[in-house]
Design brief:
mainly alpha, 57% helix, binds zinc ion
Length: 149
């Protein structure tokens, strides 16, 4: 009768095989696979699972899509969102300060600031120059040496 016990060497029927896989696989791939920190933008839009591989995830690779992430590497989506909030709060405060200068400076100075805003793409650059005291409110003087203001 002991000869019968050696029969598992034969290919196992499909049902048995699945039981064996479930016994051996979970410890490795189900619970120890590194968590995906953040899904790429296309996968997030499509609401599909993303392997989080950079620069191009498996799904984008397979589909030939352009893979893109809107959070930094090694950053979870939540951390990325927190960073974004911090940046937005900072910029919001800065813009409020610029607005405050426009309100509280003399009218001539405010017009000078407005002119710089119209000449400069980044309002925070204008604000920094006002703040560090090198802002030139005398437009006629500045127009002669625009680099210096
Ligand atoms: Zn993806
Ligand atoms: Zn992708």
């Amino acid at each position: 009768m002991s000869g019968n016990n050696l029969r598992p060497l034969l290919p196992a029927p499909p049902g048995q095989r699945r039981i064996i896989d479930e016994d051996t696989v979970p410890a490795r791939s189900k619970s120890r696979a590194p968590p995906v920190l953040a899904a790429c933008s296309p996968c997030r839009t499509a609401r599909t699972k993303c392997d989080g591989v950079r620069p191009s995830c498996g799904r984008c690779n397979t589909r030939g899509d352009t893979c893109a992430y809107d959070v930094d590497p090694n950053t979870t989506r939540m951390e990325g969102l927190k960073q974004k909030v911090t940046t937005l709060q900072f910029e919001c405060n800065e813009l409020h300060e610029l607005y405050k200068y426009l309100r509280t400076k003399t009218e001539v100075e405010a017009i000078g600031i407005l002119k710089r805003i119209r000449d400069t793409e980044d309002p925070l650059v204008v604000l920094n120059i006002i703040r560090d005291g090198t802002f030139c409110y005398n437009l006629q003087l500045c127009e002669k040496v625009p680099e210096v203001w």
